[in-house]
Amino acid sequence: MDLRLGARLAALRAQSGWSLTELAERSGVSRSTLSRAERAEISPTAAQLNRLCRVYGRTMSRLLGEVEAEPALLVRAAEQPVWEDHASGFERRAVSPPHAGLRGELVEGRLAPGADIAYDRPPVAGLEQHLWVREGALEVTVQDVAHRLRTGDCLRMRVWGPTRFRCTGDAHARYLLAVVLP
């Protein structure tokens, strides 16, 4: 997955006609990190990948979907792509097959106890999200308002600015995120 992701990131940068320095300035991700990610020497963190998605005008699911083969109508559980940010304790599963022609997608997130992920802005401004906590405790901050969520709670949000996801319990937090493009 890291090899395919690195190749896709390099291709997107080339299509945009940007140098590593230009992309670093646009995304806020260091030039060295971009270079190492494109060569698959490292896997970008969730926050870094979010910044790159914003620059390229894609959701994370769409970018990761572009790394996979042609999207199918049905994706069996064992075939759903999983991406991990080991540094932050975040695991992301693309539940529904992403497709460029569709506006909605389902993503399962899993945060380790104490995991804390902050995004400086959404990959697409005005992104609609519905977050349903399946297990554990999660604090989600949207536009400086913190929402404490427990198993079964659902938060609907339209994302314009920074967000933060924090696992506040002693066990993993698992949630389903419905993402709808504006």
Structural commentary:
The chain has five helices and ten strands, in the order αααααββββββββββ. The chain folds into two domains: about 1-65, lambda repressor-like DNA-binding domains (434 Repressor (Amino-terminal Domain), Orthogonal Bundle); about 75-180, Jelly Rolls. The strands form two sheets. A six-stranded antiparallel sheet has the order 1-2-3-10-5-8, with helices on one face. It has a four-stranded antiparallel sheet with strand order 4-9-6-7. A hairpin with a 2-residue loop joins β6 and β7 (about 145-150). The chain is globular. It is an alpha+beta fold and about 180 residues long. α2 (about 20-25) packs across α3 (about 30-40).
Q: So what's the CATH class of the largest domain? A: Mainly Beta
| CATH fold-type name of the largest domain | Jelly Rolls
Structure summary, number of beta strands: 10
Helix and strand composition category:
alpha+beta
Task: Evaluate the radius of gyration.
Answer: 16 Å
Helical content class: 25-40%
Number of helices: 5
